[in-house]
Amino acid sequence: WAQAQAGLTPPHGLHQASVPPMSFLMSALLAALLLPHFAGAQAPYDPSSAQTPYDPTHPFWLSREKQAHVANCVVDIGIAMTVLGKAGILINAAADNCDQPGDGPGKGAACTAAVSGVIASFGWAATFISASAAECRSTLQIVDEHAVLQEGCAADVAVTVATLSVLVNSGAIIKDTCPGPRGADKNTQAKDESFDDRRRLEASTVDAAGRRGLEELGNNRSLALEKIREAARKLEGHGFNGPAQQKGKTKKNDVEQVPLSRTAAQNAACAFNVAQFTFLSARAGLMINYAVEDCSAQALFHGGDINKAKCITDVGRTIGAFGYAASGIAFAVAGCPSVLNNLDPKCGAAIANIVAAVAELVGNSADFANTCAVLSEGGAKEKADEEKIKEDVFDPVRRLSAGANATSPERTFV
User: Fold this and answer.
1) Which residues of 105-133 are buried (b: 16+ CB within 10 A; e: fewer)?
2) What φ, ψ does residue 188 adopt, rounded to 5°?
3) Which end of the chain has fewer CB atoms within 10 angstroms, the N or the C?
4) How far apart are the C-alpha atoms of 279 and 324, rounded to whole Å?
5) Positions of the chain with pLDDT lower than 70, given as ranges
6) Basic and acidic residues: which segments have biased composition (predicted)?
7) CA–CA separation, 131 vs 138, rounded Å?
8) Of 281, 407, 409, the residue nearest 356 (C-alpha)
9) Helices 208-219 and 145-177 meet at what angle, rounded to 10?
10) Residues near 213 by beta carbon (within 8 Å), at least 6 away in sequence
11) What is the pLDDT of residue 6?
């Protein structure tokens, strides 16, 4: 009776006198404690089988792979927002530069850069919206692999469009900003509007040689002010009254304000360039993490062509991310300080974009094998399965039982 009240009744079939109840309980507890250790000693240690200690702030399902998907989800959303903002800036530049395409030798390049930049920005927006959908979906406990493949394939197609537009955009920027022939039309240079900083990077009516001369002049502000005063004195000597000047020494702030007051478009472009550098640097780190895993010796030699394609994709995207991050820094250096139009960083940014775009194209071409190709193979298999189901449903012969006669239609649905 006491054993029954204490819950220590021996199991069914075990005689109560064979093993003392307390001894049985202690033996069971000891076996429960020691058996896992003995069983584990019989097999080699597998690190992947080790369980993570319980942490209420770190659910079991949030593995390292899930954490990488969460980080990619956040970064992809940030990049999508950044490129959409840059698209708005470039639309504004296109409106300024494409109203009269034939006005000045540099106008056509500026218009081309702006329009191709708009196309590239929307292409990148489509890319990272699709990529963020795939990455964010992969953070769920139950993942629809088919939907992830569809979104990955859509991202790869959008990358192709975006990178081709980036190549066109970079070529136009190089023509408009990098050093070139100095034999430009002097009359065109006289129409200088480089001090209107709305026409920056993708926007200028003065060719690269003319603006570079203005930049070199602007780097030495004291010399620039002295030349302006000398020109004013010459005009006054010929009967033209120059602007009234205040007596006394020129304040330092007055010199700093000579180049230009900033506009809202400039401030927005500066912010988006800084965001581009920030998010693309984070993306580069994530791509390095994937490359370390997919390009390991075990993955390359034991994973087949799929893992080799993944490695090429990761390396290409890593180089591309670093290239676009570098161009974001260069554009920020050129556009954020309140100085005269600085051409060298813009030229360097365009070259970095070309390197990044080529690397992205190579990596993206390899990724098609893991997204769109898998979808097409799966679609063909699904189509074959559907055809087989239709045959099974509509072919009466296939539905006959083992003893049925094909000439007895009344037995078809038995």
Assistant:
1) bbbbbbbbbbbbbbbbbbbbbbbbbbbbb
2) -70, -40
3) N
4) 10
5) 1-62, 100-107, 180-262, 338-341, 378-414
6) 183-199
7) 11
8) 281
9) 80
10) 189
11) 45
Q: Which tokens in the block code for residue 343?
A: 């051409």
Q: Can you read off the two tokens belonging to residue 175? A: 């023509």
Q: State the greatest distance between any 2 C-alpha atoms of the chain, in Å, as a whole number.
A: 130
Instruction: Give tens-digit pLDDT for 109-121.
Output: 888 889 999 999 9
Q: Which residue has the tokens 């990761």?
A: 314
Angle subtended at Cα 281 by Cα 147 and Cα 164, rounded to the nearest 5 degrees: 65
Contact in structure between 243 and 232 (CB atoms under 8 Å): yes
Q: What is the SS3 string spanning the chain?
A: CHHHHHCCCCCCCCCCCCCCHHHHHHHHHHHHHHHHHHHHHCCCCCHHHCCCCCCCCCCCCCCHHHHHHHHHHHHHHHHHHHHHHHHHHHHHHHHHHCCCCCCCCCHHHHHHHHHHHHHHHHHHHHHHHHHHHHHHHCCCCCCCHHHHHHHHHHHHHHHHHHHHHHHHHHHHHHHHHCCCCCCCCHHHHHCCCCCCCCCCCCCCCCCHHHHHHHHHHHHCHHHHHHHHHHHHHHHHHCCCCCCCCCCCCCCHHHHHCCCCCCCHHHHHHHHHHHHHHHHHHHHHHHHHHHHHHHCCHHHHHHCHHHHHHHHHHHHHHHHHHHHHHHHHHHHHHHHCCCCCCCHHHHHHHHHHHHHHHHHHHHHHHHHHHHCHHHHHHHHHHHHHHHHHHHHHHHCHHHHCCCCCCCCCHHHCCC
In this predicted model, what pLDDT tens digit does every residue of 359-411 receive, in sequence order? Answer: 999 998 998 988 898 888 765 555 555 555 444 444 443 333 334 443 334 43
Amino acid of residue 89: I
The residue written with tokens 């390049």 in the block is 109
Q: Which residues contact 411 (CB under 8 A, 6 or more apart)?
A: 400, 401, 404, 405
> What whole-number distance in Å separates Cα of residue 242 and Cα of residue 231?
9
Q: Do the Cβ atoms of 202 and 110 come closer than 8 Å?
A: yes
Amino acid at 298: Q
Which pLDDT does position 15 carry in this prediction? 44
